Structure formats: C-alpha cells, structure tokens
Amino acid sequence: MDVTARSFVGAPLIALDVDGTILHHDGHLSDQVRDAVRALAATPAQVMIATGRSVLATLPVLQDLDLLVDGSYAVCSNGAVTVVVDSAAADGFRVHDVVTFDPRPAVELVQQALPGVLIAVEEVGRGFKVNELFPEPELSGEQRAVSAAELVSTPATRVTVRDLSATPEEFAEVVERIGLHGVNYAIGFSAWLDLAPEGVSKASALEHLRRVLRVEPSDTVAVGDQRNDLEMLHWAAWGVAMGQAPQDVVDAADSSTGTVEEDGLAAVLDEVLATVRLGRS
Fold it and tell me: Domain spans of the chain?
C-alpha cells in the first residue's frame, strides 16, 4: 500500500468515486472516512464526487459528507451529467452540463445478444425509464415501465443494463463480444453495464471542471475502485486505486491504498490534508 501524497502548486482538486471508495459495499459510511472528507473540505482544496450514480442518488452522499454547499460541483452518471449545488433551486441543484447520445443502436445490439435483460434509460433529476422494474434498491428515483419504442425514443445521458441470470464473467464475455460502437461503456462488478455518450467519462467531466476552477493539472487527485474509474485515474496527476480494485484498475493508478472495508480512502485523504497544510505553513 502506497499512499504518499504528491506536492501541490496550489489548492488541489480531489475527485472521489462513491460506491466501493467512499461507501462500503453495503452502503455504510464510516466515521473515519466522513471525518477525513470533512477535514479536507474545510481547506482550500476542492473535494468533488465523481460517480456513476444518478443525481438523485448522489445528493444524499453529498449531504452526509457536508459537501452539499452552494456553488460546489458533482460529476454524476459517469461524466454525462455535472451539477452545481444551489439551495435556491427547486431540487437543490442546477444542471451545469449534460451530454446525451442516441441509445437505440446500442440497446438493440444488447437486446439481440442478451434477451431478457433489464434496461434503464436515465431521466435526469427524475429517475429512469425501464423495460421492467429493477430490484430495489439498485436504481434511485422513480422507475417508469415503458414500451420498447418509448425506452429509446429520446437522447439519453446513460443507459444501464442488468442481467439477473448471468455471472459477472459470463456477462462481461458477451458484452465484449457484441462490439459496441458509438458509446462509452463500463462493466460493473456484477452483471451490470453502463452506456454513456462516446468520449464521455468521469475524466472528461473532471477535466472541464478543472479548467473552470483553474486548477493546475499537477494538482489533481482521483480515487476509485472500478473500471468506470480507469479514465479518471489516468487523468489525475495522482491516481489511487482502492485495495479491492481489479488488477487493470490497479495498473492504471499511480498507487494503491487499503480496501474500502479498511477505510483506505481515509488514509489517502489524510496524506493529502497533511500536504495541503504543509503548503500553507
């Protein structure tokens, strides 16, 4: 485990995955991680969520971490949706950026290769259109069961595919064999697939925000544990893989930390905090 922080020229931007990084796999947030996030957020550093979760599923995490602060950003839906917290807005946030794609070609390919899979098309700030209801609590927000035609009738920020009958290995093999084009995709740790607009990832959204916030490229940190974090870990000047991450994620990172059960994120944030404080002394 190597969590020695790099030095920073200015206030760093720290991008954090949620599930398997901030939150344990059962959804638990430890006091150690909560305290580490809050301590770092109290400095000039920019602590930012970058997650595959929808906006609605991200807001409670921001609240638990005391990051629900006006003007702060969050990257959702694997980079397809970026929001800014705004307590004056009806939903508590404003959409800063949205990138969409035509879901029809990819969905039709998936359905041909994997008949019977569950498919959800995100409706930003509301929930999902689905062909069949997903098990609770796998999706946050309203689920609307719609016809096959309506499912792919409008541009989408994200499409989620879930196979309840296949093992993760079987599912991944079929997905790789399909040869999806014109989209960016990431396979989860279960038989779960997220489709996003081509060229869109957590990294692309974070790079946009880095420029907006005028953070130096050398002052970027990212921590994650799954394949939808690969681009983000490459993007950051210091990319850190969680201890339970698959080998290709570890290989993409500059260093690794303890597992989520060991609160490995807290160790990373403590190192960043110490470096930030040293730079201010």
Answer: 13-98+200-280, 104-197
